[in-house]
């Protein structure tokens, strides 16, 4: 089955010479949730802007549902709903009328039954006659999603959808995304919240300095790149780490009361048995042992750090 979005060798260079995207290749499957992670300026919003026709690529090709965005923009854009990072709604308009108007902008015939269903799904129906300025920040974001869904798109782009909302509202937004996925909508999500990607995404893409470092299924990524940390609690804190332990990659925890050792769970040998023998040999007494699986945030930080080292080596 052909991907619903296909991106080939996409590049974007601005007039000042800044290269925002560097040869991005990416296939997005229908019905999946793809999370794009990356620091500010990584190229996430530029990539979305090009796919949605808000910016023009310097090089490369993008097709949406088989439609080339350069030659058949209208057909491609009809398939896309976009919720931008910045609030962009008429605050003096009423909710239902505003969402209905957005549908009309795409040339769709009036369908009050569909608009009602969208508003109910987003728990906005009881606010349908309210002016948008009367709504909370979280409700305004829901209105933006309703507007993006008003023309019945098959693809929804959410650019930092939970930025600036509290934890409770963020979880409510996750519930909204879950329901959208169940309805078959393909969702591309950019976020700074690692837990959001970990909770919502089928696949995760990491982008940094315009390069797509990897795209992988979330679970597979956690298993293949994730590490575990063995934490050894000591009976008595120590001031300095014995050289033999430091040579094995052991770090001294804050306060000197713990030893921290990262190991690859997929490796043939973890080195834990030898490590524990080395701890006893150093005259240290252990009071407890525990392990912790590395998070998606740990993986993301490692990948960006690796790219930084690579860039520094190239520059040298």
Automatic annotation (TrEMBL):
CDD domains: ABC_DR_subfamily_A. Signal peptide: none annotated. Keywords: ATP-binding, Nucleotide-binding, Transport. The lineage of its organism: Bacteria, Pseudomonadati, Pseudomonadota, Alphaproteobacteria, Rhodobacterales. InterPro entries: AAA+_ATPase (IPR003593), ABC_transporter-like_ATP-bd (IPR003439), ABC_transporter-like_CS (IPR017871), ABC_transporter_ATP-binding (IPR050763), P-loop_NTPase (IPR027417). This is ATP-binding cassette domain-containing protein. One of its GO terms (molecular function) is ATP hydrolysis activity. Pfam families: ABC_tran (PF00005). It comes from the Bacteria. Residues 5-234 form the ABC transporter domain. It comes from Maritimibacter harenae.
